[in-house]
From TrEMBL, chain A:
This is 1-aminocyclopropane-1-carboxylate synthase. It catalyses: S-adenosyl-L-methionine = 1-aminocyclopropane-1-carboxylate + S-methyl-5'-thioadenosine + H(+). It comes from Rhynchospora pubera. The lineage of its organism: Eukaryota, Viridiplantae, Streptophyta, Embryophyta, Tracheophyta. One of its GO terms (biological process) is ethylene biosynthetic process. PROSITE patterns: AA_TRANSFER_CLASS_1. InterPro entries: Aminotransferase_I/II_large (IPR004839), Ethylene_sulfur-biosynth (IPR050478), NHTrfase_class1_PyrdxlP-BS (IPR004838), PyrdxlP-dep_Trfase (IPR015424), PyrdxlP-dep_Trfase_major (IPR015421), PyrdxlP-dep_Trfase_small (IPR015422). Residues 50-430 form the Aminotransferase class I/classII large domain.
Automatic annotation (TrEMBL), chain B:
This is 1-aminocyclopropane-1-carboxylate synthase. Its cofactor is pyridoxal 5'-phosphate. Keywords: Pyridoxal phosphate. Residues 49-428 form the Aminotransferase class I/classII large domain. Belongs to the class-I pyridoxal-phosphate-dependent aminotransferase family. PROSITE patterns: AA_TRANSFER_CLASS_1 (PS00105).
Length: 513, 438
């Protein structure tokens, strides 16, 4: 039902509410809408859009399901678990169930190969990883302050870290020339740029393993980073949400390990954000974690967790599950194995079509290099290509520009949110597309050249002015379907956002439930 | 290992170092005293009895019975079909079935006198998050919200801490049973204007915490007129709506809006939660119901920071949609709360303590003005300390609820067994007897 409208001012909302810091205005979501309006289904809609823009891990949910079935006492609504109902339903202490914190500490330690030990008393709950990021921003920075973040980065950080907090994120640019590794020079440059603009830098925000790159940070880079934040006396927020999703024999080196090794680093600067949404494939359960080595931050974050506590029903279930050592060991090992297998299959499939990916050892996605298919080395060209991939190839993948990648032509492609059959369909579509584009590229180039020559010739006598030439190009380009815009916000350009900013819908979840 | 002394690092945020989290209030100090020395009938019979926490434990058996008799719920939550979809479901619209269930439950509570559109429900992890969210949405940092006193101490944190919004109290007193008057509203508004603060809305709790009273129709209409004339929003926190002892006595703002054809409804937002009526604070189920599309859309986006666990939504949907169950639950819960309330008030009266005449909630508003050495906040806090240290009862001083009249205390009675309640009441009785002798 609609309600009578009153005068303009009556429902005047706050600046935060009226602005677009939520990030969803970007026409990037055309891709998501395309998926939502035409979702792939092997039987009922084999020609639909395959969702490869959602970093979910479906590969091991069967293990979790099996555990839950075998442990009815961990669920408060079963006959076996009902006697816990009252105590659990009543429990709203923001410290969280002690057994839950212990279970999380154990699990996080295990994901790091037992090389790090976490103190359950420093574990704070949050509303998913989303809530963890925002809470840390509220604790560490004032409105107008900035955190530096290496590019490319998870687009929803702009919402999570900045929207309601008023904190800014400034890029530390990384490049493919060294596989997008973070360098000391890049750190210093970003810091200096902020300083020149009178922006107070409060810290660095990084994701390790990286989203969207799927790479893990090496020891030297971590040391560079730790030295940098120590020298500048600023905070380091490490998002380690994919720490249990490292495969390919490579061991994950968490920043926590280096802290133990090197006492000269000030631990009170280090804060970890974690969640069970990726490693355990349980985004619906909203389990976020803040782990800080700074007691004041722990205390403050804990108070703030009142705004996003984990349901005690969920705490109860997961404390049983994650305290089950046999299960967690088996799960982590099997998760690695299945991710590795899927990663191998997918990347070798792409290789056959001459498509390369950034070498990666973690995460639920690959960073695909489609630079060879770009008509020009520009963001516009990347977005044009992306549009074709959605409309013609019917794959929703995420363009690098939405991750603020400095170089056009890279795409993040998720592979763990579908079954094998669907992955093969996706690969085939990519292969067909790759062949088609290779053929067309030559022809198109010729055609474009002829059109351009003719037009230049026709107007050669009349056109001397550069401005008119630009107008001509604009008229030509009007025919291309471009629906993206760049908003300049006082020098910081707001790029297009990835689908994560809109409420993500898994391909396996029907919209009306 | 030798502790290393580092150069001072960049400070934490102003929000982190402020005390607007409100935990230094005696409201929470009492909780800490309880935590350190909790009463237990067998192991610690002289411990502190917690009467400062508004929880509803009187009707758990009904919920447990439902789950026991409906094992299909556990199959739904953990069963073969549907687990994967549920585990992955992080859509901020929430499960359709759950939103519908919430709308249905809210309608039941209001005796079917209003209809709720489930598409206007936004889910949040508890009413704590809902109130903060609305504050972010309707006010800018530095703006003000009017809140009638006495009010729930947590509002100081929920409405102000991270939002930077101010609260201007609308002062109410016992001369008219703490009802909100037009004069009080105008005074508060004028005070805000004088301080150059833009008032963006009024937040009221109906039924009231800590008073335990439901608002009357004339007052509700007065408030609607006021907020319309001043061009502001109205947030009606109705989390105790299912705890009004008699359904005829609760009038939701939704009813007033419906009766007036929803004129100006776009200003109004209702907050609800399952923490009080259903006694499920652990599950973190809160909701915003807004008649304003822009608020619904924005609130939904913001709820990403505070979604309700999908397995909790799944578990509660069948129960809340089951009208046979909810009708019986609401009726029984009301009766049990009323019985407890009447019992407590009668026992207190017998030993010489009067309470405000209430008709709702999980607490009574106790008048200890005659016991004050001085009619000041200090006097009240002294008495509070005595009650905590000597009677070992954690009750909440009115000043922590911003009551302008010293001597009132909120006493919760629904969060313990009847045996524990009797022990608490006997401590009051002994205390009053001793006082009479001296």
């Amino acid at each position: 039902m609609g309600y009578q409208s009153v005068s303009e001012n009556s429902h005047l909302l706050s600046r935060i509410a009226a602005g677009d810091g939520h990030g969803e205005n970007s026409s990037y979501f055309d891709g998501w809408k395309d998926y939502d309006s035409n979702p792939f289904h092997p039987v009922s809609n084999p020609g639909g859009v395959i969702q490869m823009g959602l970093a979910e891990n479906l590969l091991c949910l069967d293990l979790i399901k099996e555990w839950i079935k075998e442990h009815p006492e961990a669920s408060i609504c079963t006959e076996e678990g009902l006697n816990y109902f009252e105590a659990v339903a009543n429990f709203q202490d923001y410290h969280g169930l002690p057994s839950f914190r212990q279970a999380l500490a154990r699990f996080m330690g295990k994901a790091r190969g037992g090389r790090v030990s976490f103190n359950p008393d420093s574990i704070v709950m949050s509303g998913g990883g989303t809530g963890a990021q925002e809470t840390l921003a509220f604790c560490l920075a004032d409105p107008g302050d900035a955190f530096l973040v290496p590019t490319p980065y998870y687009p929803a950080f702009d919402r999570d870290f900045c929207w309601r907090t008023g904190v800014r994120l400034l890029p530390i640019n990384c490049f493919s020339s060294n596989n997008f590794k973070l360098t000391k020079a890049a750190l210093e440059s970003a810091y200096e740029t902020a300083r020149k603009n009178n922006i107070r830098v409060k810290g660095v925000l990084m994701t390790n393993p990286s989203n969207p790159l799927g790479t893990t940070m090496d020891r030297d880079t971590l040391k560079t980073l730790l030295t940098f934040v120590n020298q500048k006396r600023i905070h380091l927020v490490c998002d380690e949400v994919f720490s249990g999703s490292v495969f390919n024999q490579a061991d994950f080196l968490s920043v926590c390990e280096l802290l133990d090794e090197e006492p000269s680093y000030d631990k009170s600067l280090i804060h970890i954000a974690y969640s069970l949404s990726k490693d355990l494939g349980l985004p619906g359960f909203r389990v976020g974690v803040i782990y800080s080595y700074n007691d004041t931050v722990v205390k403050c974050a804990r108070r703030m967790s009142s705004f996003g506590l984990v349901s005690s029903q969920t705490q109860h279930l997961l404390s049983h599950m994650l305290n089950d050592d046999d299960f967690t060991s088996k799960y982590l090992a099997e998760n690695k194995r299945r991710l590795h297998t899927r990663h191998e299959e997918f990347t070798s499939g792409l290789e056959k079509f001459g498509i390369k990916c950034l070498p990666s050892t973690a995460g639920l996605f690959i960073w695909m290099d489609l630079r060879q298919f770009l008509k020009e080395n520009t963001e516009n060209a990347e977005l044009k290509l992306w549009r074709v991939i959605i409309d013609d190839v019917k794959l929703n993948i995420s363009p690098g520009s939405s991750f603020r990648c400095t170089e056009p032509g890279w795409f993040r492609v998720c592979f763990a949110n579908m079954d094998d059959a669907t992955m093969h369909v996706a690969l085939k579509r990519i292969g067909d597309f790759a062949d088609k584009v290779k053929d067309e590229t030559t022809q198109l180039d010729d055609a474009t050249m002829h059109v351009a020559l003719k037009r230049i010739g026709d107007f050669a006598d009349k056109v001397k002015d550069e401005t008119t030439q630009l107008q001509q190009k604009k008229r030509f380009n009007k025919k291309l379907r471009l629906s993206f815009c760049r908003i300049n916000d006082g020098g910081i350009t707001q790029h297009l956002m990835s689908p994560h900013l809109q409420s993500p819908r898994s391909p396996l979840v029907k919209a009306s439930h | 290992m030798v502790a290393k002394v580092y150069k001072p690092c960049i400070p934490l945020s102003a929000i982190a170092t402020s005390s607007t989290h409100g935990e230094d209030s005696p409201y929470f100090a009492g909780w800490r005293a309880y935590d350190e020395d909790p009463y237990d009938a067998t192991t610690n019979p002289s411990g502190v009895i917690q009467m400062g926490l508004a929880e509803n434990q009187v009707s758990f058996d009904l919920l447990e019975k439902y789950l026991e008799e409906h094992q299909e719920v556990s199959k739904l939550v953990n069963g073969i079909g549907g687990f994967r979809e549920n585990a992955l479901f992080q859509d901020y619209h929430g499960l359709n079935s759950f939103r519908k269930a919430m709308a249905s439950f809210m309608e039941e509570i209001r005796g079917g006198k209003v209809k709720f559109d489930s598409n206007r429900i936004v889910l949040t992890a508890g009413a704590t998050a809902a109130n903060e969210l609305l504050s972010f949405i309707i006010a800018n940092p530095g703006d003000a919200l009017l809140v009638p006193t006495p009010y729930y101490p947590g509002f100081d944190r929920d409405l102000r801490w991270r939002t930077g919004v101010n609260i201007i109290p609308v002062n109410c007193n016992s001369s008219n049973k703490f009802q909100i008057t037009k004069q009080a509203l105008e005074e508060a508004y004028a005070k805000a204007k004088k301080a150059d603060l833009q008032v963006k809305g009024l937040l009221m709790t109906n039924p009231s915490n800590p008073l335990g009273t439901a608002m009357t129709r004339p007052v509700l209409e007065e408030i609607l007129n006021f907020i319309s004339s001043k061009n502001m929003h109205l947030i009606s926190d109705e989390i105790y709506s299912g705890s009004v002892f008699s359904s005829e006595e609760f009038i939701s703002i939704a009813e007033i809006l419906e009766e007036s054809g929803y004129a100006d409804a776009q200003r109004v937002h209702i907050v609800y939660s399952l923490s009080k009526d259903l006694g499920l604070p652990g599950f973190r189920v809160g909701a915003i119901y807004s008649y304003n599309d822009a608020v619904v859309t924005t609130a939904r986006r913001m709820s990403s920071f505070t979604l309700v666990s999908s397995q909790t939504q799944k578990m509660l949907s069948p129960m809340l949609s089951d009208v046979n169950f909810t009708k019986n639950y609401i009726k029984t819960n009301r009766e049990r709360l009323k019985r407890r309330y009447d019992y407590v008030v009668e026992k207190l009266r017998e030993c010489g303590i009067e309470c405000l005449h209430g008709n709702a909630g999980l607490f009574c508003w106790m008048n200890l003005k005659p016991l004050l050495e001085e009619a000041t906040t200090d006097g009240e806090l002294k008495l509070w300390e005595t009650i905590l240290k000597d009677l070992k009862l954690d009750i909440s001083p009115g000043s922590s609820c911003h009551c302008t009249e010293p001597g009132w205390f909120r006493v919760c009675f629904a969060n313990m067994s009847i045996e524990t309640l009797d022990v608490a009441l006997s401590r009051f009785t002994s205390f009053m007897e001793k006082r009479r002798k001296t």
